[in-house]
Specification:
Layout: H1 16-24, H2 30-33, H3 38-43, H4 49-65, H5 68-71, H6 86-93, H7 104-113, H8 118-122, H9 126-130, H10 137-149, H11 160-172, H12 175-185, H13 187-194, H14 203-219, H15 222-229, H16 233-245, H17 261-271, H18 274-281, H19 285-294, H20 299-325, H21 331-336, H22 338-351, H23 354-361
């Protein structure tokens, strides 16, 4: 039944798409959708994020222009206009946001909004929160459901008298004292504030988890599953691990164990670079780095291995030159020949001088030969 002087959605400045979506959902008058929340709009069929933002922001601005006593008396029981719960709202809205318990994702979003108290949280615009990086529809619904359980209405501004009482209560009491008073007077509501609500795993979500695991077994990589499902690699990994904890399937991260530590070190000793090892074994550099992290092989260890292998190669090359020529070549001889010029450069870089190199190999310095010219 419509109220007197009720307003239809088409008389408000809404797009045709939004009006049609409201009509299909059964909202044919303003009184029917005056108390609708952003989360309820998203749950409504044929209404997406863009349409929900438009409807919520338009209704919010329209409510501010209208007479509060004529249009907002239709609020749900337990709203800010219920004088019987005035004390409850004073105690609740004065609680700091840092004292409540939500998911890690939701708490990070609230931290970015710089919301200090429940009073600021209940007045926050869901559309603006949704624009924060890392915030999605699930986070908005979680915050909205949390406020509903506490008999609050997201996006609704309390009357001025209540706001003054809440700010006065916050000034008189410390954060710890406010929470202690609330836990004593309203123990049931206190449990909702301080305990994270268990996730309700619906049949559709369980089916989705199993489909992701089935796709992982077929495709073999998390990246492939992510591309197929429109998810990130990290999100696919979280889904598979959560499904394993629920006992839906058994997902084990075997990717880093494709190569043993000895095999990686042996391959690096041959190719002396991450790029060379990855190409030789037909894997990506990112995957190889995950294996290095799994086996706890640090960059310093690889650098030391590279230096050791390079020095050994120089010494072996020099020994072959000595065996072929029958004597220890001098610095001038190494620099004259094209094949040995690079060896001389590496020796001076790695050892500092030819004398230090000969000392490590225990090779005596070649005798100085004086050439006499016939005059």
């Amino acid at each position: 039944m419509l109220l007197k002087n009720d307003i239809f959605p088409e008389r408000i400045d809404l797009s045709t798409r939004a009006v049609n979506a409201l009509h299909k959902a059964g909202y044919n008058s303003f009184s029917k959708c005056a108390n609708i929340t952003f989360g309820e709009l998203l749950d409504t069929r044929n209404i997406g994020i863009k349409t929900a933002n438009e409807i919520f922001n338009t209704f919010d601005s329209f409510r501010k222009k209208c007479n509060e006593h004529q249009l907002l008396k239709i609020t749900l029981p337990g709203s800010f206009y219920d004088k019987r719960k005035h004390k409850y709202f004073i105690n609740l809205l004065a609680i700091p946001v840092s004292k409540i318990k939500l998911s890690v994702r939701a708490m990070r979003v609230l931290k970015k909004t710089k919301t200090q108290s429940m009073l600021e949280l209940v007045q926050s615009d869901a559309g603006k929160i949704l624009q924060i990086r890392g915030c999605g529809v699930k986070t908005i619904r979680e915050i909205g459901d949390f406020l509903k359980h506490l008999e609050l209405q997201p996006g609704k501004r309390p009357d001025d008298g209540l706001v003054r009482d809440v700010k006065k209560h916050m000034a008189e009491r410390e954060a710890g004292g406010i929470l202690e008073d609330f836990s004593r007077d309203y123990p049931d509501k206190y449990d909702l504030l301080t305990k994270v609500k268990a996730v309700n795993f619906t049949v559709s979500r369980i089916k989705f988890y199993k489909d992701c695991f089935r796709a992982y077994k077929e495709l073999g990589t998390l990246e492939s599953v992510g591309k197929q499902r429109g998810l990130t690699r990290e999100r696919v990994r979280q889904i598979l691990e959560q499904g394993t904890r629920l006992g839906l399937f058994n997902y084990a991260r075997k990717e880093p164990l494709c190569f043993s530590k000895n095999k990686i070190i042996k391959s690096f000793s041959k190719h002396l670079s991450i790029c060379g090892v990855s190409r030789a074994n037909g894997i990506s550099e990112a995957r190889l780095r995950r294996m290095l992290a799994f086996h706890k092989i640090t960059g310093k260890e690889l650098a030391a291995l590279r230096l050791s292998v390079t020095r050994n190669r120089c010494m072996e090359f020099f020994r072959r030159i000595v065996a072929k020529s029958g004597h220890s070549p001098s610095s001038s001889e190494l620099q004259k020949k094209k094949k040995t010029r690079n060896l001389y450069t590496r020796i001076t870089v790695l050892w500092g001088s030819m004398d230090a190199f000969r000392k490590e190999l225990r090779i005596s310095k070649p005798a100085y030969r004086r050439i006499r010219k016939n005059l």
